[in-house]
Amino acid sequence: MATDYTYTDIDLDFLPHPVTGDITLKHDDEAVKRSLRNLILTQKYERLFHPEINSRVAGLLFDLASPVTMAQIRSNIMDIIKVYEPRVQIVDVAVVGLLDQNAVGVRITFKIRNSPKTSVLQFTLDRSR
Predict the structure, then answer these.
(1) Which among 67, 84, 85, 90 is least surrounded, fewest beta carbons within 10 Å?
(2) DSSP code string of 38-87
(3) What is the mean pLDDT of each run of 10 residues along the chain (129 residues)?
């Protein structure tokens, strides 16, 4: 059975495949979503051979929750995706402060290059050290 995937990455949860016992894989938009999330959460010097990768989003989570801070988080997310994820074309990035939860909601709408499908990645960033 030959399957044709555009992008394949290992699943960083390292869960074994139920039949083969091998590490499971993420394919296409799921692989790209995992990559985007990892880029956004990466701080300076966290990647061994790429210390220059720094999204600065984690540091902004401790600033006052104002429209200016939300705009800075949005800008940083867009910048890191444009520089380090060439597989993606950004359609929209929405950042909303969730004041009751001391968190920030992020919604990224994107297209994988050479694909007509639009995908959405939603997650919450919370202020934890």
Answers:
(1) 67
(2) HHHH--TT-STT-TT----HHHHTTS---HHHHHHHHHHHHHHHHHH-TT
(3) 63 75 78 90 85 87 88 95 93 92 93 89 85
